[in-house]
Write a structure and sequence with these properties.
The protein is built from ten helices and 28 strands. By secondary structure, the protein is an alpha+beta fold. The strands form three sheets. Strands 1, 2, 3, 4, 5, 6, 7, 8, 9 and 10 form a ten-stranded antiparallel sheet that branches. Strands 14-13-12-11-16-17-18-19-15 form a nine-stranded antiparallel sheet.
Length: 477
Amino acid sequence: MARSKRLLILLAVLAAACIAAFAALHWQEKQEQIAVSGEEVLSIDPDSVQSLSWTYGGTSLAFSRDETGGWTYDNDAAFPVDPEVMEGLLTPFAPFSAAFVIEDAEDGGQYGLDDPECTISIETEDETYEITLGGASAVDGQRYVSFGGGTVYLAAEDPLSSYEITLSDCILNDVVPAMDEVTGLTFSGTENYEIFYQEDGAAWSYCAEDVYFTERGGETVPLDTDRVEEYLTELSSVGLTNYVTYNATDEELAAYGLDDPELTVTAEYTAESETGQTVSGAFTLHISRDPEERALAEEDGAADEEETITAYVRVEGSSIVYRITSLEYTCLTMASYDDLRHDEVLTADFADIQSIDVTLDGETYSFTAQGSGDGRTWTWEGREIDLSDFQSAAEGLRAAEFTDETPAAQQEIAFTVHLDSETFPTVEAVLYRYDGDACLAVVDGESVCLVDRADAVELIEAVRTIVLTDYEEEEGA
């Protein structure tokens, strides 16, 4: 009985060994059908493709060539298709190279081809290609690909990454042109004025850096170059990517507030063409806030800094409307004269100042520059003085708020700078007491702005330090 049991056990082990050997031989046969490739197995000329469609992630998209050779979206011919996106979709198959080739693959399921990640159909004038993208190899992560039949390929470069897109990724968005030099800006809507560029603006400004000007009250006045250029940077970098409609109707324009834009900006510019020639152009952008938000904002006055703003833009001549961020809207609508003008009370470069007359406490002190460049010094009544604190304080006088109010309190300090300029030989700035926190700055007889009283006090103390130090040194001598 025991011998019988042992015999049965031996027979079972032998059977298992035979089955294992058969399976190993069968696996070896399968292994032998996998060949290293690295060669081109398919090549589709993108220019010959007449239609392209694919399904990925439950979404199907289809595009076709039009009579001009461009692309159209099959579901809506009004959709502007980006030809570069289409080219990028066809590039993985022009050509397609395989890292490995699996001949006579019987079970597509083990390669993810029965339930593929993506299916692609490419039709040329002569042939239609049905392409299936399966799963990724567990060993090296390469994608299994089938073109029909029994052969499966491991892609040298994964085509799936090109097709992980939505319709919005296929749109031909508007672009802001390269504007090498902006020669003019025009605002209409909430702001209505023009800015022009003049490289040599000595006739209108004593600041050599001023190149942007506008008209105010019949006079040409300078703007702050840094502020204007910062605005132009915001205009050039506005996000034209998040479209809300690509074929706006009149009703949609009204819904987005763009039938009557809050602000329209036109930039006239010059740029260098691909051939090296200088060309001129104009770029116009319409900007508006959601009509309901805009109405509420006009009722409430100043907006909360943390408020979320729903805003839209449209490029002149385009049917696409884009949503922009709250920050973009805020920056683009900060286009008033006060937003772009100088906020410094004195814009002169101290290197251009020859002398300064300061009136303080009923006394007038005259500081005179001697020499030039790094060796330049300042004197008062023939004695060399340190003017660095006064210079720092004078340059630090900046507008906390612009105003044209008439001075109603006593004068705190006044100073007149004498410049080496025929057009602007002198500039006079006077600070008047306003309240406990501010002084009113008047430049050349016109009220300009309120400045922090602490800054005015710093200027006054700088003058007193100069004259009192000199007086004490004289007394000590």
